[in-house]
Write a structure and sequence with these properties.
By secondary structure, the protein is an alpha/beta fold. It has helices at residues 19-28, 43-53, 57-70, 96-109, 127-138, 141-145, 152-163, 165-171, 183-209, 265-278, 305-316, 329-336, 341-344; strands at 8-12, 32-33, 76-79, 119-125, 172-178, 222-226, 232-234, 237-238, 254-260, 291-301, 323-327, 348-350. A seven-stranded mixed sheet has the order 8-7-6-9-10-11-12, covered by helices on one side. A five-stranded parallel sheet has the order 2-1-3-4-5, with helices on both faces. It has two domains: 8-209, Rossmann fold, CATH 3.40.50; 222-350, STAS domain (Transcription Regulator spoIIAA, 2-Layer Sandwich), CATH 3.30.750.24.
Length: 352
């Protein structure tokens, strides 16, 4: 049976002032700090346990118990450096607690039925540790290289992930944010981290289920554009709406806002074709011009969108040689797993 994801996050920090912004960010996402597992919450209790046993295996076992009872934690958020009681000689950079938790996830994920287990780790780093920890998040080989075990079975797990770093990156998301910042900044950083977890979960779901077909959305997307003077054009007409709502748009580029899905694809592609062929206010699209159509987080697409784009490129706008479809990772993955992608892949550009 696949591992379920809990709405509880593990939070381990000796800095009480970090608790509120972390808790607030989690609640925005329907999650909360797991306070009922003291060996995964209280640094003082963890330290006492480790000082008594001289090892971290009890903490790893507690994480396994948490996963079996609650499901996988939605996130593991911890100080970038934790004195867990092993002493400076054994744990000079205070990372052994993190590595113990990570290793427990790595081992558990190898067991039958746990293929979907993911680990999402966020370091709350004091300023002196930020650069070092960011290096680790960018190059996870450094993390794996620092892990070892006298037990052959565990060493094999570490070696396997070291050889397949792409698989490690799919299974484990590790990020670092500065903790020595105002509470509002930390809250925003944790919020971004949690949003990225959702994006990664959506991508993983697409990999197993394929691109969905939306048969319910009937309101076609608006095609928006911003002129050099700041005027906002919606579906070919100057809008009276607040231009500030569209200030992130690049002048001269087209933006799909709303549904470009199975029941709206024809209308949306015709809107785009009409705006390109006729031009928009002072904007004229030459046949040799680079025309950028943005499919962003404000766009909703499905398995029919790639074929719709292919028809737009090959028929309505066949004389325009430099069309670019610019999109984000999630929408890019939907397009890649949809019929017709082979006809448009040269036009796709990922952004962000």
């Amino acid at each position: 049976m696949p591992v379920q994801v809990s709405n509880k996050a593990i939070f381990i920090s000796s800095r009480k002032e970090l608790s509120d912004p972390v808790d607030m960010a989690l609640k925005r996402h329907g999650c909360e700090i797991a306070r009922g597992y003291l060996n995964l919450f209280s640094v003082s209790i963890i330290r006492k346990q480790v000082e008594r046993t001289k090892e971290l295996s009890l903490i790893g076992a507690e994480l396994v118990r948490f996963i079996r009872e609650q499901g996988a934690p939605c996130a593991i958020i911890l100080d970038g450096r934790i004195d867990c009681g092993l002493g400076h000689a054994s744990d000079p950079d205070g990372s052994n607690l993190f590595k113990s938790l990570l290793l427990s996830c790595m081992i558990l994920g190898r067991q039958k039925g746990n293929d979907n287990l993911r680990g999402n780790f966020l370091f709350l780093a004091a300023d002196p540790d930020v650069e070092r920890l960011k290096d680790l998040t960018v190059n996870p080989r450094l993390i794996l290289a620092s892990m070892d075990s006298q037990e052959r079975d565990i060493s094999t797990v570490i070696e396997d992930y070291s050889r397949n770093i792409y698989r490690f990156g799919n299974r484990f998301y590790i990020e670092c944010v500065p903790a020595d910042r105002p509470a509002a900044d930390l809250l925003a950083s944790v919020d971004r981290f949690l949003n990225e977890i959702k994006n990664r979960e959506n991508l993983a779901r697409l990999k197993t289920e394929g691109a969905p077909v939306d048969t319910t959305s009937t309101e076609p997307a608006i095609i928006a554009c911003r002129t050099d003077e700041g005027a906002i054009i919606l579906d070919g007409e100057i809008s009276a709406q607040n231009p500030g709502a569209y200030e992130e748009m690049v002048p001269g580029e087209l933006y799909v806002i709303g549904n470009w899905t199975s029941k709206t694809q024809l209308l949306v592609s015709k809107k785009i074709a009409r705006m390109v062929l006729r031009g928009i206010e002072e904007i004229t699209f030459e046949k040799t011009s680079r025309i950028i159509i943005n499919i962003t987080g404000k766009s909703k697409i499905d398995a029919s969108t790639a074929a719709s784009i292919a028809g737009l490129i090959s028929k309505d706008l066949k004389d325009y040689s430099s069309l670019v479809i610019q999109t984000n990772k999630e929408n890019g993955f939907i397009l890649k797993n949809s019929p017709g992608f082979g006809l448009i892949q040269k036009q796709i550009r990922l952004k962000g």
